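Forgive a beginner's question, but might I ask you for the amino acids of a protein and the tokens describing how it folds?
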Amino acid sequence: MNLKEHLLAIAVVLIWGFNFVVIRWGVEDVHPMTMTLLRFLLTAIPMIFIVKKPDIAMRYVITYGVLFGTGVWGLANLAVFLGTPAGIASLLLQMSPFLTVLAAVVVFEENLKTKQVVGIIIALLGFFAICIFKSDSLSYVGLGLMIMAAIFWTICNIIIKIAKPKDVVKLICTCADIITIDNLRTILWH
């Protein structure tokens, strides 16, 4: 990787981590589902005029939208609201890549190379070491919510694999509309 790619990778890590700090700040004053609604509403409003509908069946779009919005981010916001530290929440949601690889092997019968298995094992050891040594303020409820959020993200990845959209960005932008509607329905229902 060249310097530009290294800097972009660092920027992604910083933005991802800071995202959970913003969630922490937000849920101090706003209900977690309202935070989820606002997150996707701010995406949906401009994108509804710019991005066309994805080229896959609407059942995939709706399922992805509900699972990604309420299942991933609704649960993540709720976990942080209930006291899960932002850094741990950010890390726990990163179980999804491991679960996605597992799903690829089990569901789609994909094969892993030895290098990939070794890399996954090393990453998992680091992941669990951080969770064990930094989890003193993590409740079982927070842990459960974040694991469920990671599972929902994995299911979203499976949906993408099955539906095969030509442009995943179109799918995600269109899902912002569905997430907004679903979260608005949830907020109004309660």
